[in-house]
Amino acid sequence: MFLRSLLFLPVYLLALSLTAQTTVSGYLTDGANGEALLAANVIELGTGQGAVANEYGFYSLTLGRRDTLRLRFSYIGYGSRDTTILNPPPTLAINQKLQTGSELETVVITSDHGERIEQRTQMSTVEIPVAEIKRVPALLGEVDVLKTLQLLPGVQSGGEGASGLYVRGGSPDQNLVLLDGVPIYNVSHLLGVFSIFNADALRNVTLTKGGFPARYGGRLSSVLSINMKEGNLNEWEGEGSVGLISSKLTLNGPIKKGRTSLLVSGRRTYADLIAGPLLKRTAGPGTETDLGLYFYDLNAKLQHKISDRHRVFLSFYNGSDVFRTEISEGPETYGGGTDWGNLISAARWNWQVGPRLFVNTTATFSRYRITVNSLSIEEEGEFRARYLSGITDLGGKVDIDYIPNPDHYLRFGGGYTNHAYRPGAVSLLSRSEDAVNLDTLIGSTATHANELYAYAEDDITLGALKVNAGLHLSGFAVRGKFYSSLQPRLGVRYLLRNDLSLKASYSRMQQYINLLASESLSLPTDLWVPSTEQVRPQQSWQVAVGAAKTYRSAYEVSVEAFYKNMDNVLSFREGASFLLGLESDWQTKVTQGQGEAYGAEFFIQKKEGRFTGWVGYTLSWNTRQFDEINGGRAFPFRYDRRHDLSLVGNYDLSERVGLSGAFVYGTGNAVTLPVYTYAVVNPQAGSHWNDNLFLDRIETSTEKNSFRMSNYHRLDLSISFRKQKKWGERSWVISLYNAYWHRNPYFMEVGPEWVCTDHGNGSTSCGYGDRLVVSEVSILPLIPSVAYNFKF
Q1: What is the CATH classification number for the domain harbouring 219?
Q2: pLDDT (tens digit, 9 = 90+) per residue, 573-597?
Q3: Helices and strands (DSSP H and E) totals, the chain
Q4: 424 and 388 in contact (C-beta within 8 Å)?
Q5: Closest alpha carbon to 540 in 563, 570, 567
Q6: Is Hydrolase among the key words of this record (predicted)?
Q7: What is d(CA 581, CA 583) in angstroms, rounded to the nearest whole number?
Q8: 96-141, pLDDT tens digit by residue?
Q9: 191, 207, 369, 721: which sits with the fewest CB atoms below 10 Å from its CB?
């Protein structure tokens, strides 16, 4: 009897607690379009207790029974709403709409700014409003999410004009990039110049650099979570732009008002439409040309409110780069090209099980594919070659939020993904009258792997101390090998005063996927491969400490110091490349070692008012060590950058004119350069070893990455002219990229010095000398652009 009573004690206590408490729950949404307001706030003014809405707008606040509840609903940039409830029942559902802009006349205006940076347990996380991203000066007028993130402390670019992210000493494959919860494997267009994210279709962008909550896993360095807009449930609206290299259009609105909405967004460049006719005119008579030179993105999202407790969403993205050319001259045809792109989709079901329990279930599909083609047709025969590579994921996950009271926010769940890796396959077709015909496929077998995870975390409030503690358990099965990992996560915040807090975090991460990439240049031909019995999973642990403060209710200030240790990071062996020899296994061409990164970051941001922007500064060190590279000695990672500074500002001169500017400064990238050369006899040259034509020149360096490119700095400017029309708003944006035309290095090359000799008789001879010189090559000068934007 005693044991039976003990087993049922939790049930008794739960029943007792329900009779002595009131739980208010519901959704917080934008009153104009019905979009969920993630991280919006609910506060009971009498007790000061509050709750924060999750990324789907759901909140739950459990309070002790009171005769009167005075609730305030608020969100940054929106007016607050106050609601008074007399004699509240044990459970109460309130779906609150918040207004902004011209709707504020009916709303209680307060100085509340929602949950401030010093109140949050989470550190090393930055949220940039999409509206701010759109205002940052853009290259060729194309707004780019990733280039804006590169302006944050702790985040670096891979080089001039590139959109890759190198976060706290990590590499691009160590970033988990999620679009509506679905992993994206290639985030770049045009060889990294632009990203795949169309800002007009996005709702929010959040970057986590450390102190990872337990719900995230699978990567070492960062989590970039991007969500698409859900669609306007009240009325149809649209926006778009026409620029120098691309145009885009986004439409969204209700299929059934208040219940079902649809969003469709498209973007395409048109370099081929301009260059194609020019190529045909220069080709000459009798020559036909076909040029493909563009990229496109297509986003779509459907949402349906089955009831107040059930909502379903369908998301879709397809984007691709097309680079190909074909030239025909009579019976002869030559051509080739490279195509690559992503296809993702997600089906999501939100279920509010009860006033304290919320369940999100998602089924996901993601595919990245790269194709390289070559074609040659002549009278003697034809030759065709195709290189294929890619990765396909099919998975599902369940995320559960349980909020028993304001002092605990529990999250737990799990997921499963089936990966199909195709590191590389070559299809060859050769036909000739004088030779043996060939039609074969090399390396077409896919490698399948299964990845699963489970997690649990709790955000606990203990007076001035707030703790986020959790565990992430992961497993990976590939070709009879199974890896597992238990990863503890801990975040701590101690509130010294209402506007100042101290924070600390610790996290372990494990990664089962690797990117075989050139360290010097990121190309779409970089290959995704799994951990295997020979290639161990990458691992890391990271600690961070810092302080956060809100100054004068408008400025968020944070200072952080971090240390990250990485194990089993990958690199090609010296002299190896995936393209060197199809007959050998990729596993024989890589080596694994250690990485270390540490430093300090400073960030101050202003999100509201006529002037908005931020200042970010990073001081950091970043090294790698491999037993088989650089004689086993540690060396600076190519993107080790001692100093990194960014200044971003947006200022509204009036309702019709706005100014924006961004300045960046960074220490030059580390590079390897030859320090001396010597000649050796070419064994194919016979005995004529004294003839320079039969000597090979060998270039040798001492230490890897022991030289630096010139320091990088650039100023971007833009001015926008806005005007309200009867049908909506239009604006012209004029931008200058690299406004003072600084020749930033893109790469360095080594070659013989060009020497001119004056013979004294009025004649001069020039030629290459024996001395080698190093020169820096710059590719992006001052670039003006103009774009026409419209919204209705």
Answers
A1: 2.170.130.10
A2: 876 655 544 445 778 888 899 999 9
A3: 4, 49
A4: yes
A5: 567
A6: yes
A7: 5
A8: 999 875 444 434 434 444 567 878 888 999 888 888 888 888 887 7
A9: 721
